[in-house]
Amino acid sequence: MAIFKLEEFYPDYRKKLFGGDDITNLDVYASRTDKKISPKQDALVDEKGLSIIWLSI
Which backbone phi and psi does 56 adopt, to 5 degrees? Predict the structure, then answer.
């Protein structure tokens, strides 16, 4: 499966998908414990653009 940066795969994602909001600098939390893991830097998507995969740097 190929993976792409959201900005490269869908350049207008802020306007078209998130009402102008930037989602690339949100904090990442563990789903079971709600513990803050790290700040997220990039959003990645699969080749079909159907799944968002977060990358913490």
Answer: -95, 135
